[in-house]
Amino acid sequence: MSDTAHTHQEDEFHSRLDTGMWLKLFRRARAMPRYLVPLIATAIFIAAAETTLSFMNKWVIDGVDRLGRDAPFALYITAFLALAALTSGGVWVFIEMAGNLSNRLAHDIRRDGFDRLQELEFAFYDTRPVGWLISRLTSDCDRLARIIAWGTLDIVWGSVFVTMIAAALLWINWRLGLIVLSVLPPLAFVSYWFQKRMLLSAREIRKYNSRITAGYNESIQGVRTTKTLVREAANLGEFKELTTRMLDASVRNARQSSLYYPIVATLGALAGGLALWHGGVLVNTRFLGADFTVGTLILCVQLAGMFFHPINQMARILTEMQAAQAAGERVLGLLATEPKIKDGPAVLERVKAEEPKAANRADGNTPPISALSRSVRIPPAPDGLPARIDTVEFRDVTFRYENGPVVLQNFNLTVRAGDTIALVGPSGGGKSTIVSLVCRFYEPVSGSILINGIDYRERPLQWFQSQLGIVLQAPHLFKGSVRENIRYGRLGATDAEIENAARLVNAHGFITQLDRGYDTEVGAGGNRLSTGQKQLISFARALLADPQIFVMDEATSSIDTETEQLIQRGLETVFAGRISFVIAHRLSTIRNAARILVIGRGRIEESGTHAELLARRGHYHELYTSQFKRERLEAALNE
Ligand code: ADP
Fold first, then answer.
1. What letter does residue 138 receive in the DSSP assignment?
2. Looking at the domain 19-334, which fold is it?
3. 428 CB under 6 A from ligand 1?
4. What is the pTM of this model?
């Protein structure tokens, strides 16, 4: 709910323009001179051509009495038509360039943003709803790119055009020029004033519209509840208020639009009228020596009428920039967010030193699945240090989430290759936190996690995470086929390798029974499969990547005995030879684990094998008898 609320949120209108921020954004356009240069060049050309065309009008009008007799007259007409055609060509070029620039900018910002999102650590996601991030990358990016591209065009074209018209008027007759220019400030002010209000009321309409849509939705979907609680009258009251507000905003917007154009047109006419009045006087006094022809008079009236369009455009872009300022801040903020979990300079240095060697070694082959033993050669780590992971050790690890209380305090644990560690204990005890720390999704606040005795922060992050195979409680399957989902574990894998991985984890049987086998579409999130089946597919995916450390949060939802057995046997394959951490919910997993840790309040309360812990008659015994025994009973009843 809060996600969608964020998606639809409208920005506050900033009355002060943050020019520094906008410059930063406009600078992105500079990186695309292929589009920016022709855009600016044609904008200037069009402004110049439109002014020149008015001058040509004047020459034609002034030469009208020589019609047909003079060769230059025909030349004027030809030149006039040619320039008009060129202008149209220019308009085509700049619309093309602005469109290109806008789309490419959006593409770049979106790509950079996506890149950043991939790099950022889990803690970043803890504090930001998904909907918020999605709207940054979709609507915000598009909106900003449009403003940058079309804004560049409007600002360049508008300011060049206004300057040229003003210069032409002043050049023709400075007194007339000044009189006409006096209309400019009120014209600019009125344009801005109306544009701003029209924009605000249009946004209000959009806001109410989406709330009304949501209202319809709720009312239709919740109709049973509404009726049983007799809430119809209250709902109608709320709804009526919304539609009334929307009506108000719509009426206001219509009134603003209806007033805007006549007022601006009147101001435009005023400028023309002033030009006509003063120009008329000048034409009449021509015999006194002033060179002011009828053609010049028409030219001045025409020039005076040409202010409206560029001023209107510039006022609009200004209001749009004010309205999009918050979006700009958010996107720039996202792009500027530095990941907190990343490789330090020492690691980068080592990786860089190793790069030439790695290039010589690379033979393009990916490692085969070494599912049953770790005797197969593991590809070298990019930093030249051992790639084989023999131990994972928590040494005095203390951890808390951002602004949260301490979750782990001086936590110690050593796990060796081949060991399966089952974590059990009350919910909120810290099991997931331990696993997230192993994966370096978060880093210890103090103490360290060591891989073969070396702090994992001193190894390349990407390499380390590529050694992890993770299956979550609610495994995520992507849109696409079963095969594609398994291949996600290692993109270069062949179909045979995929099927082999599926066989090893006992997923092959059920997959071939699906209507289209490996090509069955799973639907976004894997909606068409049971949780157990999704876990089996995730095992195959994890196994295909051939991880050295395997991490799993077992599904808690009831799984039928048959799938449970499949999963159990699949797990044995995945666990073999690896370091495994399992947040265990199922008896079968716990029984077979090398070591069971009872985690409570961020500490290891008990540790040992199933038999040892039962014999102790402590926490584990208690958990086992209450929770696990019940589970076993249920399973027995289901059989
Ligand atoms: P378990 O897996 O044993 O249920 P967790 O590791 O999920 O326990 O949680 C341990 C403690 O950390 C709990 O108090 C929980 O509220 C807190 N916690 C877990 N995840 C986060 C998070 N992303 N941000 C803040 N606090 C969290």
1. I
2. ABC transporter transmembrane region fold (1.20.1560)
3. yes
4. 0.71
Rounded to whole angstroms, how far apart are CA atoms 585 and 592? 13
Residues 197-219 have pLDDT tens digits of 888 888 888 888 888 888 888 77
Distance 430 CA to ligand 1 centre (A): 6
Q: How many CB atoms sit inside 10 A of residue 498's CB?
A: 24
Tokens of 316: 């609009």
Amino acid at 445: V
Mean pLDDT taken over the chain: 84
Quick check: helix, strand or coil at residue 88? helix
Separation of 260 CA from ligand 1 center, angstroms?
A: 57
In which band, very low, low, confident or very high, does the pLDDT at 70 lie, cut at 50, 70 and 90?
low
Q: Please tell me the number of Cα atoms within 13 Å of 426 on its side-chain side.
A: 9
Which ranges constitute the DSSP H helices of 430-527?
Answer: 431-438, 461-466, 482-487, 495-504, 508-513
φ and ψ at residue 377, rounded to 5 degrees:
-65, 130
In sequence order, which residues have a C-beta less than 8 Å from that of residue 369 and are 6 or more positions away? Answer: 497, 500, 501, 504, 543, 544, 546
Q: Are 458 and 346 in contact (CB under 8 A)?
A: yes
pLDDT per residue over 221-247, tens digit each? 777 777 787 777 877 888 888 889 989
pLDDT band at 375 (very low <50, low <70, confident <90, very high): low
Report pLDDT digits (tens) over 332-359. Answer: 888 888 888 888 888 888 888 888 776 6
Q: How far apart are CA 171 and CA 169, in angstroms?
A: 5
Strand partners, 581: 421, 551
For the record, the structure tokens of 577 come out as 């030879």
Q: Name the one residue in this structure whose structure tokens are 């002014």.
A: 51
Closest residue by CA, ligand 1 atom 19? 433
Between CA 94 and CA 35 the distance in angstroms is 9
Which residue lies with its CA nearest to atom 25 of ligand 1?
401
